[in-house]
Design goal:
The protein is mainly α. It has one domain. The protein has twelve helices and no strands. The longest helix is centred in the first third of the chain and has 29 residues. The protein is globular and about 50 Å long. The two termini are about 15 Å apart.
Length: about 230
């Protein structure tokens, strides 16, 4: 069925770290560019925007859009960055975690409903120690979310298709999403207010979160990897 993910992690981890850093750099550049745009007036012209409250108060609209985007494969770090850019650090963290968790539930549920189709499509795609994942769903999922390797969407679909328990998978995902959500929300809020300190702090936290994920993986590698 599914193989251990040790080999995949070794071959993709550094590439994933570089990708994560590139996402951060691009988001910072885009954020500074967007600082010159008047979002209030820009989004008031759109039909789904509350013209009295303005886009900056459209938290529900952002949450729905962000959840759908992540559910179809948009990097979760992107929606966390812009959640904080639009709504501030703490609201951005909250919206980022909720949006990515809702996206997880949505894609997991779709794969569970169409289990037969996705089993054939995804077999062997995610190299995870299936038995350990099934018996330690919360913990294994949390570690996988900490590590910047693999695809968030692919993980959700495989879990749904191959019968991973829903509640511990979703809870493990929600907890595992928090570190990168905080990092990219801090980055987005820092860019929005022009705080070099917050941008620097987010970079440091990004490195710390990545190292923490690898430490956890290394500690449990024998259980997570193939025998």
């Amino acid at each position: 069925m599914l193989q251990g993910f040790g080999n995949q992690l070794r071959t993709t981890s550094w590439r994933s770290v570089v990708k994560l850093l590139l996402i951060a750099v691009v988001l910072v550049l885009v954020g500074f560019l967007l600082n010159s745009v008047d979002f209030d007036n820009l989004f008031k012209s759109l039909p789904f925007t509350n013209t009295d409250a303005g886009w900056m108060n459209g938290k529900l609209a952002y949450l729905v859009c962000a959840s759908l985007l992540v559910a179809v494969g948009c990097p979760r770090q992107v929606v966390s960055f812009f959640a904080a850019y639009f709504f501030g650090l703490w609201m951005g963290i909250l919206l980022g975690v909720i949006a990515t968790t809702l996206a997880c539930i949505l894609s997991f549920s779709i794969a569970r409903v169409f289990q037969g189709y996705f089993k054939g499509l995804l077999k062997g795609k995610l190299k995870l120690a299936f038995e350990f994942w099934s018996n330690n769903t919360f913990f294994a999922t949390m570690i996988w979310r900490f590590i910047p390797a693999g695809s968030n969407l692919l993980t959700n679909l495989v879990a749904g298709a191959f019968g991973i328990s829903a509640l511990p998978f979703i809870m493990g995902s929600a907890v595992g999403y928090i570190p990168h959500t905080v990092v990219f929300a801090l980055l987005g809020a820092g860019v929005e207010v022009g705080s070099n300190f917050q941008i620097l702090a987010s970079g440091i936290l990004l490195v710390v979160s990545v190292l923490f994920g690898f430490v956890l993986f290394k500690k449990y590698q024998r259980k997570l990897s193939p025998t």
